[in-house]
Specification:
By secondary structure, this protein is of the alpha+beta class. The protein has 2 domains: 55 residues; 189 residues, no CATH class. It is built from 6 helices and 14 strands. It starts with a strand and ends with a strand.
């Protein structure tokens, strides 16, 4: 995250905004910046605006040679991530119940949702689903992503398509959708119930829970909170997968 401060003797906010736009356009290059700003009220003698922005580079598309699925990719910080949920299921059976074998599940129990939301994977499937050259992100990868985006509204910045989320603090935040990471509320599967569709997005971490081998960590974003949360769950639960490119 970068912070740019402008200390200017300008009397007109519009002029100030225009000047910053000019400076920002010179800095952007091939990057897309998620920008938030705070303006002081009194510009009568001098003033400043403080903008914080995170460089997120759209790196094009990756075509998975295993099944031909194409994914938009973005560079956040110094890491390249898939900007869509994984849709790979070749050689991984579709499940309808908990399992300690690799299985995928349909978001909200509907196969038609896969095209937009990707599959839900139990942890055993998530660990083998990413293509060669990519991997299931560890806790360290997720922390690096969060720190690169920065701020207390990382979840809002990571999410997209407000009309698909239940109304709440997430999509009301002014930074909603600015990162290009494009998180959607695909919900989960606990072996019996497809839960929280349109309210929560859950993503597996490759990092196992240190106190019980049957659990692993995950990250989630939900409709009424602007941040991103770390937790752990049973490895047989069904969550979404985002792959990060090997360094």
């Amino acid at each position: 995250m970068f912070i740019l401060k402008l200390n200017l003797n300008l009397h007109n906010y519009t002029s100030m905004k225009g000047l910053f736009s000019l400076i920002l356009s010179m800095l952007i290059g091939m990057y897309i910046y998620a920008a938030d700003f705070i303006c002081v009220k009194n510009f009568s003698e001098s003033g400043f605006q403080m903008f914080t922005f995170t460089p997120v580079e759209d790196t094009g598309r990756f075509v998975d040679p295993r099944d031909g699925n194409s994914y938009r990719t973005v560079k956040v910080g110094n890491r390249v991530w898939m900007a869509e949920n994984l849709r790979y299921s070749k050689d991984i059976p579709v499940g309808t119940a908990k399992s300690n074998k690799p299985h995928v599940y349909y978001p909200n129990g509907n196969a038609e949702n896969v095209a937009l939301y990707g599959y839900l994977y139990n942890w055993y499937a998530a660990g083998v689903a990413c293509p060669t050259g990519w991997h299931l992100p560890t806790n360290s990868d997720w922390k690096q992503l969060k720190n690169s985006i920065g701020g207390d509204n990382v979840g809002s910045q990571l999410a997209t398509k407000a009309d698909l989320w239940n109304d709440g603090s997430l999509e009301r935040n002014s930074s909603f959708g600015k990162s290009g990471f494009s998180v959607l509320p695909s919900g989960s599967f606990d072996g019996k119930i497809y839960g929280n569709f349109a309210s929560f997005a859950y993503f597996w971490s490759a990092t196992e829970y240190e106190y019980y081998s049957g659990n692993a960590y995950y990250r989630y974003i939900y409709y009424n909170y602007a941040g991103i949360v770390s937790n752990y769950s049973n490895k047989s639960d069904g969550f979404s997968v985002r792959c990060v490119k090997d360094e």
